[in-house]
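Hi W.,

Here's what went into the run:
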Amino acid sequence: MHNKKMIVLPFMAILMLSVVGVAYAHWSDFIKIAGYAEMGSLTLAFDPDEILGCVDNEPTLPVPKDVAWCDVYYDPDSYVYDEHTDKYGYKVLVFEIYNAYPQYEVNLVTVVPHNIGTVPLVITDFNMWDPTGELEFVWTTPPPASPAYGYFWKDFDGDGVYDQDTEEIINVKIVNFVGVQLDPCESTKGEIDFEFKQPAEECHHYYFKVELVGIQFNKAP
Amino acid sequence: MFLATLIAASVMGVTFAHWSDFVTVEGYAEMGSLTFGFTRIAAEWDSEDYEGYPPEKDTGNGVCVLSEEETDVHTLKTVYKLLTFTITNAYPQYWAINKFTLDNAGTIPLCIHSVVLTLPPGFSYVEDPNFPGARFYVYDARPMLIYEIWLYKEPEDYGPGWEIQPPWMFPGPYGDVYGVRQLYSNQIDPCSELLTEICVYFYQDAEECHTYEFSIEIEGIQWNKHP
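Here's what came out:
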């Protein structure tokens, strides 16, 4: 009996080696797919090559005046550079209105957003707000209508309800922009107009922001 | 002494004297070859080629290039071992497809045995178990879903302008008519090709100006060892 076991052992070893040998020896070949995906950029900026300007209604008054005035400039801290296109621009356009008074109208006539990225974009909306929380903004004719109209108001009496006669501070009109698709390197020119209303306070400082919203073209409504 | 001489002579005599003849079996085994590779790019198109899916543009681009030639010594057929899929200027919801051929340039049939995705450090993936081909959801370190890769058999040799929609626009879970089909286990006979597609689709959390890399290794083994 013992001898029979001794005879079987080498066969088992050979069998095991054979199995292992087959497992390692099957023929195979490999191929490879290497994938590289370089993402583009979506960069909306104000065009620094555009001459900035604002005009007001004082030269057109029955008796022309030069009382209030406006300064417009790009915020140097908002400089933005797109490494794909080698283009640059500014994210923030600052306008400062001095010595304003009720019925004073001022128009920013050369607001030029520029697509300096590599992906087409569509301007879909404006966000308008007062960072201090003093003023609230309401659209009367919202985008995508062009012109779009709205106004800032201040809740003087604290009742949370807008009173047209006593609480309207600044009327806003925006021409162009919304719905405009800007392919890379394209820009569009629009206008933002402001008119100060009678409830505006003397010696007061109002602060508000207008944000243009641009989204990738294939997500536009 | 005499006896010893007699015995020795007897032994030699017997040795020389018995009748004998021989036949010989000579064996020659010429082994075949298993050479697996790419041979051609059949078509390339992307989401911007389809009217009405979103606005037609020419912004992104996806191009495949073949390299690393290998010629099978038996068939003298040349295949490429590396397919490089380069997508440029991609953006969320952009997808790019390339159709190419997997070829058997050797002399024995082979089967697609495995598809293995490798990603750079910090990235991970989840494979869709229900997808007929290989479908990998790729996440970055945040972890956010960045893109997905489809790799599947696509037997129809079509391309842009053939009025055929992307596979996921066909009816059925993954397209029953011209849609995706399983890649694993496909057998490719010598001198045959398998039309295959790769699709990369980007999600909204893909980051601007980033470069994403991946590597997929496809193994073909002798058909009689599969699976």
